[in-house]
Amino acid sequence: MTGDRLLSVAPSPAFWVAVAAYAAASAALFMVLAGKTSWKRIALGLVVFAFVAHGTDIGWRGTLNVHPAQSVREAIGFLSFILTGGYLLASTRYQLTLGGVVIMPVALVMLLAARLTPAGAAPDGLDTLGRIHISLATIGVGVFALASALSAIYLVENRALKKKKFDSIAFTKASGAPLEGLDRLSHRLVLVGFPIFTVALVLGAVWVSRLGESLDRPEYPLAAVTWLAFAGLLLARQVYGWRGARAAKLTLAGFAAAIAVLAIYLIRRMVA
Amino acid sequence: MTDLFVVGISWRTAPVAVREKLAFREDELPDTLRALTTTAPVAEALLVSTCNRVEVYGVGHAGADPTGPVRTFLARQRGLDVRDVADALYDHRGNAAVRHVFRVASALDSLVLGEAQILGQLKDAYAVAGASGTSGPLLGRCMERAFGVAKRVRSETAIARGAANVSTVAVDLAHRVFGDLSGKSVLVVGAGKMSRLAARHLYASGAQHIVVTNRSPEKAEALADEIDGIAKPWAQLEQLLTEADVVISSTGAREPILTKALFKKVTKARRWRPLVVIDIAVPRDAEPKIGDLDGVYLYDIDDLEKVVAANLAERAKSAEQAVRIVEHEAGQFEQWLRTQSVVPAIRALRDRFHQVAETELTKTLDQLARREPLSAVQRESIQRVMQLVVNKLLHQPTTALRAAAADEAALRADVLCALFALEPVRASSDAIPIGALDTAQLEAIALDDRAAPPQAIPDVPTTSPSEPSERS
Q1: Per residue in A158-191, pLDDT tens?
Q2: Which domains does chain B possess?
Q3: B443: how many CB neighbours lie within 10 A of its CB?
Q4: Residue of B156, B161, B291 with shortest CB distance to A162
Q5: What is the DSSP letter of A6?
Q6: A120: which of A53, A265, B211, B390 lies 20 to 30 Å off by Cα?
Q7: Which residues of A fall within a CB distance of 8 Å from B161?
Q8: What is the three-class DSSP state of B138?
């Protein structure tokens, strides 16, 4: 792939199916949250359908030599796919309607951004090392995204329980996701995501230094901040026994930094 | 109009002082049911007696109104004059009775909307009726459907969600924080009645360690013995708070004993592990500010009552949806019953047609055989054609009967019987269990173009009153 060639291809029919399914799943989950409990199966079915269509779209792009890790733009589409898959996995254990109402629209927006924004030009020197870096970073951030979603649900539910908002949606509808379970699962996800992200960061540094690029771009210190936030979180949990709301807030802070890195990459590539 | 009926008394129509006079002990039920079916025009009967209702569900003999005799029977059984309880007793017949049974099973008629006990009580009552020989196919079908409706209502609506009394709210709140309570530790501070109840509920929900502490060691020992807990000295309160997951406090102290200063030390020692504190003492045992600390979830008696109110409000919202389910299911049952009422006429018509066909076929085959011997294939072909013709002819009247409204169906069945000089065997519930015929079997009676032998009316499965839960 050369530098003057556009990175992307036209969206596949499966993409449009996935978009429709994500939108329908978001609406159905909202209906479940609003009290239509009988819609729950339909909503989950739509999420599964969206996930399958999304996977099909990624596969279809693969047949046209568009790799999910060839650019940040593609990686965001893949991140959205991981997010949906993780949500489905977590839903087998917990009642995460509230989380779904947040995650599904986010996944939809990410997918749209990944497919419909200007593709820009391919970066120079995207070799195997670069692809591995992008793949691992995507998976790491995807796992952090899931941990952050659980932490966000934790904070909403925790607030409802602490402030005794017995008539709030978080209190009445999200009874299947106990706080301790959310906290534990979020912690486990960070434990999984952190080493992946660490390796991605190291490989990224090696790749950039090989290309001879300068390290004074804003995304590099932000990536370091992300790593430090999650490293600090693990340390605080392990050494000082941090858990619950404190840990959830730090998880969200780390993820915000990760999102900032992705946003800068995406904008830079679009401008390019 | 079906023969199903309901006669009873409930919390809606009578205070406990009246209900208790009509209540039956479990060991009295079999004899009472047998006496009822012997002395009143009742073919099938079930008696449910709980603290909130005493009701008879049954099927009357054809043409008789059993509600009056059942009212009298109930009063006499308890040594009362029926006039004394006439206002408190109510009765329903036909579709209204079916709707009532479905509503009761779904806990829509319960004092605490959506409570779970009534379904178990109905299943027990049904089992007793089965064992006493007073349950039959029609009542059985109605009860099994009622259990199915109740299951549907509980799974499709939020009518049974959330704790509905203060002592179980503690469990609900602990579930929201911890999820599974197995392995969790409960600390009971003080020895009030409410804390005893709440501790029992937590224990029943999986909490494994219950520790009791009190300023009076004797009271702590007594309560610990009562709830399978361990008594610990009051002096160890700080250490006990550090080890507990749920604290239930109900001392008679005039000043708070669970202070913020104490909890600051406790939460740090716990490394901010979650701690649910249920303070049901008045005056309160816990300073409200401890609820601001990380990992501490504090609820007082007012909070618990607010949770109950919120849960009941949620249940009430779901009741509308539950009623729609009950109405839909009752409509389906009504449709099914209507189909059953024309079965005897269809059966008689079918028998007549097949008898005529069989007779004429035998004659014809004999005549043909005298002229020229027929091969087996030829005989089978002629028989098949004859049966196909008969079944085609039966299709239209069967469909018309099934599709008609209840009164219209009876009229059409009468006309059919008059036109063809049929004598349908009216299947009473204690004779032929038509109640167990379903639509598919009805279809098979007249629509099977493959021409079953004339007498091959599908086997009628009998209901099994002793196994209600399997069908529910």
Answers
A1: 988 898 887 666 666 544 578 998 899 899 999 9
A2: 4-156 (3.30.460.30), 166-308 (3.40.50.720), 342-460 (no CATH)
A3: 15
A4: B291
A5: B
A6: A53
A7: 175
A8: helix
